Known about the structure:
mainly alpha, 14 helices
Amino acid sequence: MSRTAISFLPTLSLSQVISRVLLMFAALALISGCGTKAPEYDPTANWNAERLFQDGKTEMNSANWRVAKERFAAVEARFPFGVYAQQAQINLAYCQWKDKEPELAIGTLTRFQQQYPGNPSMDYVLYLKGLVNFTPPSAVFSSITRQNPGERDVRALRQSFAAFTELVQQYPESRYTPDARKRLSWLVNTMAENEMTIARFYYDRFAYVAAINRAQSVITDYQGVPAAEPALYIMMMSYEKLGMTELRNDTERVLLQNFPKTTLISNGFPNKYSAWNPLRLF
């Protein structure tokens, strides 16, 4: 039976076997080729550092942030020790900021500070770092909601304050310092207002000791700011609620001495919510 079955198997010549093997390899190559994506063409592959950098500047000046970021990142990656690498990193951070990527921008600037502490453009790096945090994403809709800047999360503003302060202290003659000083003044007032917002939050919820502590920080940490007037009033009223008459009267005397025209004692706080602020619904 086995001999009969074997006699019916086809007999292949050597040339036929070779042809079938070659056909099999061709089919495998075709199948594997279909699953492989051809590499994307990079027009900048053979560009030198100068051409990459200058093209990045052109795209940056045209507000084409995506392409500009690609060019500056390529300069840094391909020519890390060249003359253009450091400036490309600064420009990359600027483009990230303008392209609404503040976290990436801060990371790039922090990395630059660590890598090149003696760079002659460090004053601009600090200035840019302050700018990135000066207007955090939470401030975008403040003009619509009428939200007081002091009611926002001030973590970014504190970081901005730190960068501008370092710039002013270390580079007093920098051309960026005058503007940094103006921004510092605004930041101080805004952070003081934030403390006042928290103090009133506690006061409205009968947490008078916490309200006193927050209001006290306005007096001690932000001297001379407009928020000092309502801070003293919060302290005075909190002492009154706690039955601490002597401290209440002492605080009132300080309030009248520094703000003789205050209307808070007679009129109290105005409504803290704007009629146009939709956040009051939450």
